[in-house]
């Protein structure tokens, strides 16, 4: 803001509404701060859940491989006449 703007008379209506404008600006800053905090929390939760999904996917792969090995071993243990 330049000095000329500060010295300008904006009129009675402007100055009557000025406290409302300031309170609205404060409310907007508070809402922005709240939403940024909530968005950050959601992002952290999403990252945590993504890591958990990746761990579970790896565990599933390992269990699938292990199951295939056990099935193969089971087939090899069956008597020849039951195969």
Description:
The protein is mostly helical and 83 residues long. Helix content is 86%, strand content 0%. The protein has 2 helices and no strands. It has helices at 3-7, 12-77. The mean pLDDT is 89.
- Topology as H/E string? HH
Cα-atom radius of gyration: 34 Å
Low-confidence stretches: none
What is the SS-derived class? mainly alpha
Number of strands: 0
Helix content range of the residues, please? Answer: over 70%
Strand content: under 5%
Distance between the termini: 90 Å
Shape: rod-shaped
Number of helices: 2
Average pLDDT value? 89
Main sheet: strands, sense, barrel: none
Task: Write a brief caption for the model.
The chain is an all-alpha fold and 83 residues long.
């Amino acid at each position: 803001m330049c000095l000329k703007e500060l010295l300008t008379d904006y009129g009675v209506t402007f100055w009557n509404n000025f406290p409302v404008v300031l309170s609205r600006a404060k409310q907007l800053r508070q809402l922005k701060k709240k939403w940024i905090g909530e968005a950050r929390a959601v992002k952290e939760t999403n990252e945590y859940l993504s890591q958990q999904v990746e761990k579970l996917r790896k565990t599933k792969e390992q269990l699938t491989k292990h199951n295939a090995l056990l099935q193969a071993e089971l087939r090899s243990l069956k008597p020849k006449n039951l195969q």
